[in-house]
């Protein structure tokens, strides 16, 4: 069996707030690529719940955070469709993403 790694390095300030983050993905050719925000979800099968890590740096602009969230909603719809084949629910998730874009003023 082959293994690969994806890692995230987080530099914290004295109050444990992320100041700088970089990520690495061996197979993707990504090495020490800087990012301002990270959201990771993993499924805990024993507890039947999602566990999450949401981090963003002090330098992450609010307008970019809104765009980041919108793109996550869109990708959730795509992932849901691929995982379940339920086109109607995937379309509903995409509609939520569009409503978010309008309400958050990133789309008119």
TrEMBL record:
What InterPro entries does the database record attribute to this sequence? Answer: Motility-assoc_prot_GldC
NCBIfam families membership: GldC (TIGR03515)
- Name of the protein in question: Gliding motility protein GldC
Native organism is: Chryseobacterium terrae
Which lineage do the record's taxonomy fields give for this organism? Bacteria, Pseudomonadati, Bacteroidota, Flavobacteriia, Flavobacteriales
Primary gene name: gldC
């Amino acid at each position: 069996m082959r293994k690969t790694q994806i890692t995230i390095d987080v530099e914290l300030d004295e109050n444990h707030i992320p100041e700088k983050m970089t990520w690495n993905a061996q197979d993707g050719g990504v090495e020490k690529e800087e990012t301002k925000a990270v959201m990771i979800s993993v499924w805990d099968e024993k507890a039947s719940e999602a566990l999450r890590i949401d981090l963003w740096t002090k330098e992450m602009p609010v307008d970019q955070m809104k765009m980041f969230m919108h793109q996550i909603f869109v990708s959730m719809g795509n992932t849901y469709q691929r995982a379940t084949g339920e086109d109607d629910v995937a379309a509903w998730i995409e509609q939520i993403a569009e409503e978010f874009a309008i309400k958050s003023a990133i789309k008119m």
